[in-house]
Amino acid sequence: MTLKEKIIVLKTFKHGESDIIVHGLNSLGARMNFFARGGMKSRKRFAGGILEPLHYIEVTYKVSRSNEADPLHTLLEAQMLREFAKLRTDYNRLEAALYMLKLVHKLGQQGVVDSPELFNLLGNALQAAETSGNLDKLKLHFELKVMAAQGVLPHEEGFHNWLNTSLAKHEQIPAPHTQYMLVHAQVHEHLRHYLGPI
Length: 198
Fold this sequence. Notes:
The chain is globular. About 35% of the residues lie in helices and about 25% in strands. The longest helix is centred in the middle third of the chain and has 19 residues, at about 90-110. It has two domains: about 1-85, CATH 2.40.50.140; about 85-195, de novo design (two linked rop proteins). It is an alpha+beta fold. It starts with a strand and ends with a helix. Helix 1 runs antiparallel to helix 2, helix 1 (about 90-110) runs parallel beside helix 3 (about 135-150) and helix 2 runs antiparallel to helix 3. A hairpin with a 3-residue loop joins strand 1 (about 1-15) and strand 2 (about 20-25).
């Protein structure tokens, strides 16, 4: 059976001389895995580095017959929906965006609870990272939102402003240095407890 799915590419692995394994997050917040035969060479099916992390793409794939919990589907072709091109023109923006992908990928390895909210958070965070004037604040805001979406964030008083503000408005959150550092320390302690080293 052949299906289509819209995904944000989280991670890719080279397999052999020309094949690629792609990990992506779909619109339901579930991680999906694909095997792109000839993905390194096929300009017709996978043109212009389309299978790179950060890209929002629509894939056509053949559903795996495997009964495994984490099946590897066969990727037939892909089309670009959004490139987030500005992230690749600035090292700090790229680094922040790749960190967010890594966090979501790690969640997938830890039995993340699938939710459309996770997909929306990642898409909004990547969009915000293209123009953000405070990438560290955006990353912290994203971490808070993701953990809250997964139901693993304690109800701390200092988190309320962050959780009630959209990622697009992260720069407007009042956070004096001392308060910011406290929230940062608390969030990263919870992250390490939940996910281990990232």
